Amino acid sequence: MTKLGSGKAPVALAVSAVAVLGMVAACGGDNGGPGVSGETAAKVEINRVAAGDITAHGGAKRLAGDQTQAIADSIQRSKAKNVILVIGDGTANQELTLARNYQWGAGGRIPGIDELPLSGDYTTYALDKTTKKPDYTTDSAASGSAWATGTKTYNGAVGVDVNGKPQRSILEIARANGRRTGNVTTTELQDATPAVQVAHVSQRKCYGPVETKEKCTSDALENGGLGSITEQLLAARADVTLGGGWKTFSQTATAGEYRDKTLEAQAKERGYQIVRSGDELDAIKAADQDKPLLGVFADGNLPRLWDKATATKEGGKEAPITCAPNPAFGATPKLASMTKKAIDLLKGDKGFFLQVESGSVDKANHDADPCGQIGETVQLSEAVSTALEFAKQDKDTLVIVTGDHAHTSQIIEAGTVTPGLTRTLNTKDGGVLTVNYGTSLDPGEEQHTGGQVRIAAYGPGAANVVGVTDQTDPFFYITDVLGLDRDKK
Ligand SMILES: [Zn+2]
Question: Where does Zn(2+) bind (predicted)?
Fold first, then answer.
């Protein structure tokens, strides 16, 4: 076993090196090119916690020793049977650091996320719809469209290019190639990140026929378009679709085969199994193209795991707070359990592509709500751990974890007030941390920022995330790693 971290496994390093040499000699030249086997990579254990007393010399270091062999042992051959893409909406390095400091301590590790062996950064800029020049702060629609379709576009665009032309998504291509597919989120299913895998509309707000008629006129079915996001989601027919956004399903189709019927009735006629609670979800034993699964657990976005604690103009100087559970979360399925269920339903001979999103890291960030934000980052961590656990057993699954864009939260000098809104929190370390939301003075109106975003991975093809890439790159290497014909209809 190669141990990449501060744990104690010095002897194992030498053993692993010999094992790898044997593996390369046995398998060199096999399909997939250079790299080790899944068996070898699964044995690399990364434990990046501080070594000990952080006030002592070497106490804060996270590495147990030279990691060259462990990195070499993590780079696998390129082809994978399954890909799980996990997105933290609005989750860049500031958000990850904030959550780590609060929940696990400055020298701690974010379970799942900090265990990924290979990482890099990607650029996330969008395009201006009119000038076609870079728009340096992307929204979730343009950013999601970038990785889902390989094409840069304008803010607000879902699955169409800067000229409005539909671009095929990974999920659509995977399904056309006979792979199984899943789409899981904590937000409304019509929200930008889940929508980019299943829909093509000119404006992200076109959830149902009502909004589409008004805001995306040429996309409306009655005008010869592909229809609203929800209608396209149903037509896209992923095997597993889980999230929120039930209210749109009560809208009525205005044209097409299901005219004058509600979208809920349409889902049933199309053969979907519909579940509305965690218990109903647990009871589902199979989901496929005959009986795809549609799980919708809230009218809008799913509730956040932790209660709100909004930052204010003077909040940074007020007594530090400790975050509390959100009583409204109730029996809502957690992101990790939805992820586990999706994997259980999708795994098998055909191989699958699954997208998972913790969507309300972004929404809490917009609200200047550090507790809501950290709680949803905890959900992200749990979902990544779930995906990683499966991938390490399966040994033929690529797990990619990233954010879609940077956001406004910043860790600032503790106990201070800076321009914008601030809040001071008690941390796991027994310390205090102050967070600033500086892009607006109105909670709810905080905005995205334009920094590059971390992307990390484990499994076959994970080497593609290393260094600086662009947000459109995942479309190409995910479809390549899965061996998909991108033109197959
Ligand atoms: Zn946002």
Answer: 89, 362, 366, 404-405, 448
The reply to whether 27 and 155 lie within a common domain is no
The pLDDT assigned to 33 comes to 77
Q: Is the pLDDT of residue 31 over 80?
A: no
Res 32: pLDDT: 55
Instruction: Catalytic residue, from 140, 143, 202, 381: name it.
Output: 140
Q: Is the dihedral of CA 107, 110, 115, 118 positive or negative?
A: negative
Tell which of 36, 60, 77 closes a domain: 77
Same domain, 124 and 188: yes
pTM equals: 0.94
In 245-382, beta strands by DSSP E = 273-275, 293-296, 352-358
Q: What is the pLDDT of residue 345?
A: 98
Ligand 1 centroid–CA 363 distance in Å is 6
Distance, CA 6 to ligand 1 centroid (Å)? 36
Longest dimension (CA), the chain: 71
What residues make up the domain containing 29?
A: 1-77
442-463 CB burial, b ≥16 within 10 A, e <16: ebeebebbbbbbbbbbbbbbbb
144 alpha carbon to ligand 1 midpoint, in Å? 12
Chain segment 2-18, per-residue pLDDT in tens: 455 544 333 344 444 44
Binding site, annotated residues for Zn(2+): 89, 362, 366, 404-405, 448
- Summarised one tens digit per residue, pLDDT across range 186-234 is 999 999 999 999 999 999 999 999 999 999 999 999 999 999 999 999 9
Q: How many helices and strands in the chain, by DSSP H and E?
A: 15, 17
Alpha helices in 43-99 (DSSP H): 68-74, 93-99
Tokens of 197: 């895998």
DSSP 420: S
Q: Verify whether residue 277 is a known catalytic residue.
A: no
Question: Residues annotated as binding site?
Answer: 89, 191, 193, 357, 362, 366, 404-405, 448
Residue set of the binding site for Mg(2+): 89, 191, 193, 357
Q: State how far the Cα of 146 lies from the Cα of 402, in Å rounded to an integer.
A: 13
CB 446 within 8 A of CB 437: yes
- Report whether 3 contacts 64 (CB < 8 A): yes
Q: Do 125 and 163 fall into the same domain?
A: yes
Looking at the structure, do residues 42 and 165 belong to the same domain, yes or no? no
Give residue 88 CA to ligand 1 midpoint distance, Å.
Answer: 11
427: pLDDT strictly greater than 60 = yes
CA gyration radius for the chain? 22
Going from the Cα of 207 to the center of ligand 1, the distance in angstroms, rounded, reads 17
Are residue 73 and residue 86 in the same domain, yes or no? no
